[in-house]
């Protein structure tokens, strides 16, 4: 198994934990978020260490994504030490929609060298566009509820940029694959 596929398996386990605990404890609930902070921090640091050189050479936006996730988790951790205010809950609720598409992205990578490559890529595209659109619109809308907006705006801005950039790239790739067919 190559390093990229190994990283996808580790990411899939982490993503299934995040989505699973949120489905079990309540989407975006304080209990779920407390259970997610350490695994998400550890995963993103691990992935930067394992894949950092390759990301730096070929995929610098993944580095931005990981730093956004690390920053977000550190922010959640600092806020959760005092309370879990409604604006953060609403913001978190929307941010979690991105994790749904992450499951399918990992499956796409894992299936990349199999006969399921095309199917998993198209399924990922079908899931990515609506889930990341909801995530982006919801998090931006939720910012109006924050009294101190700097950190949430930075986090939302990073992920809005990435979602739009990657969404355009995915749509282009889908159209390109249909032109070949």
Structure description:
- This protein is mainly alpha-helical and 181 residues long.
- It is 85% helix and 0% strand.
- The chain has seven helices and no strands.
- It has helices at residues 3-25, 30-58, 60-80, 86-95, 97-110, 117-142, 150-180.
- Helix 1 (3-25) runs antiparallel to helix 5 (97-110) and helix 5 (97-110) packs antiparallel against helix 6 (117-142).
- The chain is globular, with a radius of gyration of 16 Å.
- The chain starts with a helix and ends with a helix.
- The mean pLDDT is 91.
What would a concise description of this structure say?
The chain is mainly α and 181 residues long. The chain has seven helices and no strands.
Task: Please give the structural blueprint.
Layout: H1 3-25, H2 30-58, H3 60-80, H4 86-95, H5 97-110, H6 117-142, H7 150-180
Give the structural class: mainly alpha
Number of strands: 0
Kindly state the mean pLDDT as a whole number? 91
Distance between the termini: 30 Å
What are the segments in which pLDDT stays under 50 over at least 5 consecutive residues? none
What is the oligomeric state here?
single chain
Beta strand %: under 5%
Number of helices: 7
Radius of gyration from the alpha-carbon trace, in angstroms: 16 Å
Portion of residues in helices?
A: over 70%
Q: What characteristic shape results from the CA principal axes? A: globular
Largest sheet: none
**Helix-strand sequence:** HHHHHHH
């Amino acid at each position: 198994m190559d390093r990229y596929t190994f990283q996808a398996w580790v990411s899939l386990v982490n993503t299934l934990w995040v989505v699973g605990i949120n489905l079990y404890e309540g989407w975006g609930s304080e209990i779920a978020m407390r259970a997610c902070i350490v695994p998400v921090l550890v995963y993103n640091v691990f992935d930067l260490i394992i894949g950092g050189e390759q990301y730096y050479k070929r995929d610098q936006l993944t580095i931005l994504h990981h730093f956004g996730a690390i920053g977000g988790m550190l922010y959640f951790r600092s806020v959760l030490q005092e309370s879990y205010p409604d604006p953060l809950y609403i913001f978190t609720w929307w941010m979690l929609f991105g994790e749904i598409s992450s499951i399918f992205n990992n499956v796409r990578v894992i299936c990349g060298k199999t006969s399921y490559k095309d199917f998993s890529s198209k399924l990922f595209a079908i899931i990515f566009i609506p889930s990341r659109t909801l995530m982006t619109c919801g998090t931006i809308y939720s910012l109006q509820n924050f009294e101190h907006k700097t950190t949430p705006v930075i986090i939302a801005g990073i992920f809005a940029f990435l979602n739009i950039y990657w969404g355009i790239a995915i749509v282009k790739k889908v159209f390109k694959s249909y032109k070949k067919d």
